[in-house]
Amino acid sequence: MRARSVDLVADTARAAAARRSMAWFAGGLAAAATVAGGWVAPPDEVQGQAQRLMYVHVPVAWVAYAAFAVVLAGGGAYLIGGDLRWDRFARAGAEIGVTLTGVAIATGSIWGRLVWGTWWAWDPRLVSTALLLLAYAGYLALRRAVAERTGARDGGDHRVARAAAVLGAAGFLLVPVVHFSVVWWRSLHQQATVLAPERPPIDPRMGAALLLAVAAATLAALCVLLHRVVRLERRLAADAAPATDRLPARVG
Question: pTM to 2 decimals?
Fold first, then answer.
């Protein structure tokens, strides 16, 4: 018996139902993570209740990395095969990544104020993360600038896609710099715990809450990515339709 698959970015009722199911599952994971992180997991022995920001800060930072990996993969797949759908995935990934990097910086600043006593420090992790945000904000700005200068449709034109794919690949070089900055340089930011080489020095309840939060954030971001690609394709299809097809029918 052959398995049936669903194109999750297809503009069909079946694909929309699958996306809604994913969204409901992500919501369930988020609810479970909220309970686990807010009430089940104990507060940190040193940082106290401020440590609970970890259940937001770490997942959004992780998903931002994943979103920028989508930009890299989408741009690379476009350059290899020339399929503009991959470019639309890259654009949606950049939008998600920029948004979540901003959230990571904001939550990190609040956490730093509570624990370090300052909103900002010229720390390698903070500075490199700010540069990562600027790089991909520049990626989105480049797409818009090329589209406006050439009259191209962003997400539906090779002139935009080629320039964006190159910049997206270059920007991803900052991701390992951000991740390993706490290892390569002296940093106030704590090093990895769950992914540490030795046994992670974290309470199992904290670890479970963090993993639930990461899973919820990852699945929610995937839902947003798919929804955004569908919306982009709808808009491109509407723009490409003849003007008479877009005019409302006259009555009487």
Answer: 0.88
